[in-house]
């Protein structure tokens, strides 16, 4: 399964989310993350209707967090993998 991950290089919440996603890739071998930095992919980011980072996008679902938590990120990934 592939998830798109939208982040900003200057966002501490994004750095935390990225660390969690790397851990989840080790746990779920079928998980592929495509990372987009909004500094260079802003039009793509806005075209999806996203307004804040960090953001994860699967085929049909978008998820953002004000305060990302490991359990919430993991639950989102598992939910998307089970679709």
Summarize the helices and strands and which ones pair or pack.
Layout lengths: L1 E6 L4 H16 L4 E6 L4 H6 L7 E3 L4 E3 L5 H12 L2
Parallel strand pairs: 1-2
Antiparallel strand pairs: 1-3, 3-4
Helix pairs in contact: 1-3
What does this entry look like structurally?
By secondary structure, this protein is α+β, with helices and mostly antiparallel strands. The protein has one domain (about 1-80): Glutaredoxin (3-Layer(aba) Sandwich), CATH 3.40.30. Helices cover about 40% and strands about 20% of the residues. The chain has a four-stranded mixed sheet, with helices on one face. Helix 1 (about 10-25) crosses helix 3 (about 70-80). The longest helix has 16 residues, at about 10-25. The radius of gyration is 12 Å and the shape is globular. It starts with a strand and ends with a helix.
Radius of gyration, CA atoms, in whole angstroms: 12 Å
The description of the largest β-sheet is: 4 strands, mixed
Tell me the CATH architecture. 3-Layer(aba) Sandwich
| CATH topology grouping | Glutaredoxin
- Spans where pLDDT lies below 50 across 5 or more residues: none
Instruction: Identify the overall geometry.
Output: globular
What percent of the residues sit in helical stretches (DSSP H or I)?
40-55%
What is the H level of CATH, i.e. the homologous superfamily?
Glutaredoxin
Strand content: 15-25%
- Count of beta strands: 4
Number of domains: 1
List keywords for this structure.
single chain, 83 residues, alpha+beta, Glutaredoxin, four-stranded mixed sheet, 3 helices, 4 strands, 22% strand, globular
